[in-house]
Design a protein that fits this description.
single chain, 120 residues, mainly alpha, Helix Hairpins, two-stranded antiparallel sheet, 2 strands
């Protein structure tokens, strides 16, 4: 393992960084997906409630009474925003995954002594 060239060591370091970035993106994506599920569950509960039902919405650290329409519109907006963030993270994930696989193939080729990876 000590006879690995500096180029390959650098590539391995980059591979680890890409892996960490991917993990971070996947964690963020999971958090957003959870928030979307919670907001959609709240939307379902609101749909099932009477139009004149008392509703409260969290505004910072305070709960405020709001009309049903206001709470519904805020939830719809929240879901749309979160879904856009998820799509953005999916694009980043796909790009990083491609870089990761490409770098992994280069490292494998260098270690095997082939010079450059074969196209799959």
């Amino acid at each position: 393992m000590n006879n690995i060239s500096p180029k390959v060591q650098n590539q391995l370091s980059m591979l680890q960084q890409l892996q960490q970035q991917l993990q971070t993106i996947l964690q963020q994506k999971a958090q957003y997906e959870l928030a979307v599920r919670e907001a959609k569950r709240a939307q379902e509960e609101i749909r099932d409630s009477a139009d004149d039902a008392v509703m409260y919405m969290s505004v910072g650290t305070v709960m405020m009474q709001k009309k049903k329409e206001v709470v519904e519109s805020k939830l719809i907006e929240k879901v749309e925003t979160l879904e856009l963030r998820i799509k953005s993270l999916e694009k980043q994930e796909k790009m990083l995954q491609g870089k990761f696989e490409q770098l992994q193939a280069q490292i494998k080729a260098s270690i095997e002594g082939k010079g450059s990876p074969q196209a799959a």
